[in-house]
Amino acid sequence: MSGKYADLDGVLGIGEDADGVPFYLQITAGELTYDKSGKAFDHIQVILFRTAAPGRPADANDMFETDELDGLAAELRRGILDWYGDRMEFRLPTPAERDQIHAATGWTQAPPKPR
After folding, report:
1. Which secondary structure element, helix H or strand E, spans residue 105, and what is its range?
2. Is 35 inside any structural domain?
3. In this structure, is residue 114 part of a structural domain?
4. pTM of the predicted protein model
5. Minimal CA–CA distance to 75: which of 6, 8, 4?
6. Higher pLDDT, 88 or 34
7. The predicted structure's pLDDT at residue 108
8. What is the DSSP letter of 6?
9. Does the chain have fewer CB atoms within 10 Å around its N or its C terminus?
């Protein structure tokens, strides 16, 4: 990976959507290479896990982006996620919240990456 988005790879976040439903997110960032062409490209993937609420089970969805990554990365670094038209704010979890996220999803916080 070029390193341009390496600081986002493995980041966990916690927040609430517009309806007050808690969510967790995990960001992955890296470089993929097409087998046939050998062309490499950067990507950012965000996995959004919404916790269970009365009348609604927990669910997880993702978005995988390869275009306009600078804008997406800038928003994610500010704790903002535009989730298919819904603007959501998130923050880094506390140590206790990281344990809670791990228990619900199996995700772990990646160690900080050198810049």
Report:
1. helix 95-105
2. yes
3. no
4. 0.85
5. 8
6. 88
7. 84
8. G
9. C
- Residue 88 lies inside a defined structural domain of this protein: yes
Q: How far is residue 13's CA from residue 7's CA, in Å, rounded to a whole number?
A: 14
Count how many domains the chain has: 1
Domain that holds residue 69: 6-105
* Contact (CB, 8 A) for 12 and 112: no
Q: Are 14 and 23 in contact (CB under 8 A)?
A: yes
Report H helices in 1-115.
69-77, 95-105
User: Is the predicted pLDDT of residue 114 greater than 50, yes or no?
Assistant: no
27 pLDDT exceeds 80? yes
Q: Is residue 24 in some structural domain? A: yes
For residue 91, CA distances in Å to 2, 16, 46, 81 come to 25, 10, 14, 11
